[in-house]
Amino acid sequence: MSHLVSRILLAILMLPAASLIWLITLVAADRTFGYALRPWPMIMSGLCTWVFVAIYWYGLWRGGVRWTSERITRTFLCAGASIVAGFIAGVLVYPVENEVGQFVGCVTAPLLWLIVVTILWRETARERAARLKSTDKNPIVFPNCGYNLTGLSNTRCPECGTQYTIDELLLGQPSRAPVDVTD
């Protein structure tokens, strides 16, 4: 199994694990605080679950994200915005049903944070170009326009539309010596 496939499977398993953490901490907090302090068990279980989700998600994807000061700042700003959105969602649902409103408020924040940081942590086109440039000093390019072939699965250029054979691509490389291509 590749590293990426295992990380994706672990990402899928995070939500059931987070649900278990939430349930265990809810029962423990409910037994500790009792019915008299009713919102606190839900708040405590929500906080514990979010801490688990944040640590798990960061630990899972930290190696695949290029951490810049802007990305770090936005990640923390997203956490604050998610807390506010969770609070608003909980307040809106609370008058309908108290415990459901508490649950919605506790669950909305970490789920919203996950969605936003998944988008925020994606590799930008500039980061991808820099990564590809650093990993392959002499990439194979299309002879007609110089478009980098890295990551493509066919021999038609997406830039200029020209179709090449493998032989033509290898022979047309400007920085390479002629290659003996045999079947």
Keyphrases for this structure?
183 residues; mainly alpha; 6 helices; 65% helix; elongated
Shape: elongated
Low-confidence segments, given as residue ranges, are: none
What is the N-to-C order of secondary-structure elements (H for helix, E for strand)? HHHHHH
Number of strands: 0
The average pLDDT score comes to 85
Give the radius of gyration.
Answer: 25 Å
Structural class: mainly alpha
Q: How far from one another are the termini?
A: 31 Å
Main sheet record: none
Short description:
By secondary structure, the protein is mainly α. It contains 6 helices and no strands.
Q: Topology, please?
A:
Blueprint lengths: L2 H31 L5 H23 L7 H25 L4 H23 L4 H11 L30 H6 L12
Structure report:
This protein has about 180 residues and is an all-alpha fold. It has 6 helices and no strands. Helix 1 runs antiparallel to helix 2 and helix 3 runs antiparallel to helix 4. The chain is elongated. The protein starts with a helix and ends in a 12-residue tail after the last helix. The model has no long low-confidence stretch (mean pLDDT about 85).
